[in-house]
Specification:
The protein has 471 residues and is an alpha/beta fold. The chain has a seven-stranded mixed beta sheet with strand order 11-12-13-10-9-14-15, sandwiched between helices. Strands 6-5-4-7-8-16 form a six-stranded mixed beta sheet, with helices on both faces. The chain has a two-stranded antiparallel ribbon with strand order 1-2. α10 links the parallel β9 and β10. The structure holds NADP nicotinamide-adenine-dinucleotide phosphate. The site of NADP nicotinamide-adenine-dinucleotide phosphate has 31 residues, from α9.
């Protein structure tokens, strides 16, 4: 894949970039290692000040960087602005909370005595340079939600961003440089995916985090496994969206439209499978389809656009194949299912709803990365949960019901890293984020996220430091 900025709304190549050669990669790895040696000894106050400065700069740059993001990957400009604002919030959150989240932990005096010690505590120390392999769909947020906690913990970061967002990748490196981070603390590596293995195997790289597809995750995790290096994987999702009779159906349908089409339908935590109780199926379906049809598809730079183009020609072709396969196997297309005639250039696709979906269709098993929803009619909550869990993925899930027993049941039984009740999945700095099954492992955000790339160190004393050991 070439490293290039190609506008998905027009298909025009705006700029191409040379990938880094071996010598330049070597220099950057060495800088990451050297920077770590001093940066790891800095205090939380110093790290927080740097991160707050980066947040202030990003806040000032909001409009410009939002336009860059929209130009490179096609999300509506309002969503790009919101993404930048979310990053600023997360940076400030970690600047404020990291010290508390990584405070020393003290076992009880009885346990210390039982261990034969006189004193003991657990300290969270940084690991070293961490490689982040990141996707294009939230090109600022995915990076910041790794970088803010990793840097606050005292690690240094190496970013291998997706090849279609090089301007955003270079902006991020420059952001941390302008904020005053010492050279080497955060660097962008403009490299293709083929060069990732070499970087990951380098002994100076301590760990890796990857957000992306299942094949990319498998490849990075197997190399890291071979090197015995820690990884966090945030992979794909096919999140269920359960609608049960006691729910506010109008609200559930309205939120369903946003949950499916946010980010032009290219979000790992977008609701993708809509599993609706038969008593409210017709009502929900009518409202949902009306909402999908009402969306404005068009120029992502236009403030009034709801859905822009898909990020690449390949991405649209993959989506089209999934819809065609479903159609061939008997799915009913309730709306969309084609390219909009109004936008012949660019990689647009109409918001689409498929009904009569069966397990033999690819859309039942695979992730639809675009504005395509699948509908399922179920008889009761048991069947709803069965359909919801009938997937290889387990990222998040959404449930609409006012019945507390049903809410509890879903919180217990849905196989996912999140259960969002009467709302749609959305990440927040204070809430852990991540999946189970083929959606990956490890967590980002919250205290769980910042501790992923820490050496959890037991410090144990056999004799009080001021008492000489007995002869
Ligand atoms: P992708 O093709 O897997 O790419 C993600 C990143 O991995 C890119 O930087 C890519 O580099 C790199 N990459 C691809 N193959 C690789 C390999 N074999 N070895 C090393 N690196 C490799 O995914 P995408 O199309 O950009 O993103 C969409 C996927 O990401 C979807 O499945 C989505 O659900 C998932 N996602 C998950 C989360 C989450 O939090 N769970 C969040 C967002 C997205 P190149 O661009 O150079 O190929």
């Amino acid at each position: 894949m070439p490293i290039a900025t190609i506008n998905p709304a027009t298909g025009e190549t705006l700029q191409t970039f040379e990938s880094l050669g071996a010598e330049e990669i070597e220099k950057r790895l060495e800088r990451a290692r050297t920077a770590f040696e001093t940066y790891r000894t800095t205090g939380f106050d110093e790290r927080a000040e740097l991160l707050r400065r980066a947040a202030d700069l990003l806040e000032k740059d909001q409009e410009d960087i939002a336009r860059t993001v929209t130009t490179e990957m096609g999300k509506p400009i309002a969503a790009a602005r919101a993404e930048a604002a979310k990053c600023v919030k997360a940076m400030r959150w970690y600047a404020e909370h990291a010290e508390g989240l990584l405070a020393d932990e003290h076992p009880s005096p009885a346990d210390v005595e039982d261990s034969g010690g006189t004193k003991a505590y657990v300290r969270y120390r940084p690991l070293g340079p961490v490689l982040a392999v990141m996707p294009w769909n939230f090109p600022l947020w995915q990076v910041i939600r790794f970088a803010a906690p990793a840097l606050m913990a005292g690690n240094t970061g190496l970013l291998k961003h997706a090849s279609n967002v090089p301007r955003t990748a270079l902006y991020l490196e420059d952001l941390f440089r302008r904020a005053g981070y010492p050279e080497g603390c955060f660097q962008t590596l403009l490299i293709g995916s083929g060069a990732v293995e070499g970087v990951l195997r380098d002994p100076r790289v301590a760990a890796a985090t990857l957000t992306g597809s299942e094949p990319a995750g498998r490849s990075v995790a197997s190399v890291a496994g071979d090197e015995i290096k820690k990884t966090v994987l945030e992979l794909g999702g096919s999140d269920p969206y359960l609608v049960l009779p006691s729910a506010d159906i109008a609200r559930a349908a309205e939120v369903a439209v946003t949950a499916r089409t946010q980010n032009n339908g290219q979000s790992c935590i977008a609701a993708k499978r809509f599993i609706v109780h038969r008593d409210v199926y017709d009502e929900f379906t009518r409202l949902f389809v009306d909402g999908m049809k009402a969306l404005k598809v068009g120029d992502p730079m236009d403030d009034s656009t709801d859905v822009g183009p898909l990020s690449s020609e390949r991405g649209r072709a993959d989506l089209e194949e999934l819809v065609e396969d479903a159609r061939k196997h008997g799915a009913t297309v309730l709306c969309g299912g084609r390219r909009p005639a109004s936008h012949p250039a660019g990689w647009f696709y109409e918001p689409t709803v498929l009904a009569d979906v069966t397990p033999r269709m690819r859309v039942h098993r695979e992730e639809t990365f675009g504005p395509v929803a699948t509908l399922y009619k179920v008889a009761d909550l048991d069947q709803a949960i069965e359909v919801a869990n009938d997937t290889a993925f387990g990222l998040s899930s959404n449930v609409w019901t006012r019945d507390e027993e049903e809410q509890e049941r879903c919180a217990r039984d849905l196989q996912a890293g999140g259960v969002y009740i009467n709302g749609m999945t959305a990440s927040h700095p204070a809430m852990p984020f991540g999946g189970v099954k083929r959606s990956g492992y490890g967590r980002e955000l919250s205290g769980h996220g910042i501790r992923e790339f820490c050496n959890v160190t037991t410090v144990w004393y056999g004799t009080p430091p001021d008492v000489p050991a007995a002869e």
